[in-house]
Amino acid sequence: MRALRWHGKGELRLDDVREPAPPAPGQAVLEVSFCGICGTDLHEVADGPNLIRAGAHPLTGVTPPITLGHEMSGTVTALGSPSPGVEVGTRVAVDPCLRCGVCRWCLHGEYHICAKGGSVGLAADGGFASHVSVPVEGLVPIPDGVTDRMAALAEPLAVGLHAVRRAGVQPGDNVLLLGAGPIGVAALLSAKLAGAAAIYVSEPVAARARTASGLGATEVYDPARSDVRREVFLRTGRIGPDVVVEATGRPELVELAITTARRGGRVVLCGISGASATVPITQIVPFERTILGSLGYNHDIPRVLDLMATGRLDPAPLLTGVRPLSAGQDAFAELAADRGSHLKILLEPGRS
Ligand SMILES: [Zn+2]
Ligand SMILES: [Zn+2]
């Protein structure tokens, strides 16, 4: 089969590889329907390895080259162990978290922060191929009425939902989102569902700002032109937002997030970068601000699929393109060159 593999920084190749072997106990093989290109994948190609290990991954032992892709939907073709509600032929989305199952965090249900954890598509071969092997505990049956195409968007939406759940957004809260990329938009949709009274968004890219407005943001600010902190302060009765979600990983925005949250407010950081942020301690302690990290999802993908099935969450605005796997390298280049016009591109291995 053909697979889009990461060989090293700047080296993304469409290779001929063997199909996955019949699954070992605990594993399942899927025929991939759709798999989304994530900002993480773009970073691995632009300046990796970041999350990919240059040597053997401590949990999987896998070394590059590695098939990318962790945002997938497909149909189960073989099962190495039983999985509730799943048979051969079941349509599934995948929670791609790889977990050891025996560390302190796995034993407490926090598999997403497993001490040895990794992800399908970064620590093991992923979904940019016709078939993929995944752990059975990651299989999430797709409800009737949700298409495979929409189900492939469940993973990025779950990142936003998890951030909003971590922040404890309550009905009537005022929320500020920094960044309206795929995760920021996912957080916007989830904050609406959580009952936020107002959702303010800071986003410099015009096309993304328009998307955020169209999805119900109360106000969208261009940080190059507006003093976001002051604008939101004034619009919240000189109180400040209850919750700030930082979805970019830019250090200056981490500082902005912390200094903008109201006294006693919550800041949730879900953007990752290797950079360090400088924040005055006097902006945290005297104001009793709570700062939280949010990584991926923890049983959030089934929630997202249920929200899609009941019509509460429409994933369509996230999707801006679908390409055959053979056009994968071009799609990566297009996303890297133009952040404005795309949110999410799905690759479709079954289409030539
Ligand atoms: Zn992702
Ligand atoms: Zn673990």
From TrEMBL:
<keyword id="KW-0560">Oxidoreductase</keyword>
<feature type="domain" description="Alcohol dehydrogenase-like N-terminal">
    <location>
        <begin position="25"/>
        <end position="144"/>
    </location>
</feature>
<dbReference type="InterPro" id="IPR050129">
    <property type="entry name" value="Zn_alcohol_dh"/>
</dbReference>
<dbReference type="GO" id="GO:0008270">
    <property type="term" value="F:zinc ion binding"/>
</dbReference>
<comment type="similarity">
    <text>Belongs to the zinc-containing alcohol dehydrogenase family.</text>
</comment>
<dbReference type="InterPro" id="IPR011032">
    <property type="entry name" value="GroES-like_sf"/>
</dbReference>
<dbReference type="Pfam" id="PF08240">
    <property type="entry name" value="ADH_N"/>
</dbReference>
<keyword id="KW-0479">Metal-binding</keyword>
<dbReference type="GO" id="GO:0052587">
    <property type="term" value="F:diacetyl reductase ((R)-acetoin forming) (NAD+) activity"/>
</dbReference>
<dbReference type="InterPro" id="IPR036291">
    <property type="entry name" value="NAD(P)-bd_dom_sf"/>
</dbReference>
<dbReference type="InterPro" id="IPR002328">
    <property type="entry name" value="ADH_Zn_CS"/>
</dbReference>
<protein>
    <submittedName>
        <fullName>(R,R)-butanediol dehydrogenase/meso-butanediol dehydrogenase/diacetyl reductase</fullName>
        <ecNumber>1.1.1.-</ecNumber>
        <ecNumber>1.1.1.303</ecNumber>
        <ecNumber>1.1.1.4</ecNumber>
    </submittedName>
</protein>
<dbReference type="Pfam" id="PF00107">
    <property type="entry name" value="ADH_zinc_N"/>
</dbReference>
<feature type="domain" description="Alcohol dehydrogenase-like C-terminal">
    <location>
        <begin position="182"/>
        <end position="309"/>
    </location>
</feature>
<keyword id="KW-0862">Zinc</keyword>
<dbReference type="InterPro" id="IPR013149">
    <property type="entry name" value="ADH-like_C"/>
</dbReference>
<dbReference type="GO" id="GO:0000721">
    <property type="term" value="F:(R,R)-butanediol dehydrogenase activity"/>
</dbReference>
<dbReference type="InterPro" id="IPR013154">
    <property type="entry name" value="ADH-like_N"/>
</dbReference>
